[in-house]
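Tip: read the tokens left to right.
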């Protein structure tokens, strides 16, 4: 039964919009967020908070 939830919460890679190439890896709930995920997180390469978008 543990493998059943993988289709609801897939692992996604978030890439920085600042162009530094920094990424975060997280899980996304497909039912609550059917669109591309956008989170505001810290980019240590430029030392600022920027938007991170879901990579395809």
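Filled-in amino acids:
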């Amino acid at each position: 039964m543990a493998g059943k939830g993988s289709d609801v919460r897939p692992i996604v890679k978030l890439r920085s919009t600042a162009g530094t190439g920094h990424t975060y890896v997280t899980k996304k709930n497909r039912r609550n967020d059917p669109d591309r995920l956008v989170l505001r997180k810290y980019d240590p390469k430029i030392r600022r908070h920027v938007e991170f978008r879901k990579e395809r």
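Residues 42 and 48 are 6 Å apart (CA to CA). The chain has a mean pLDDT of 90.
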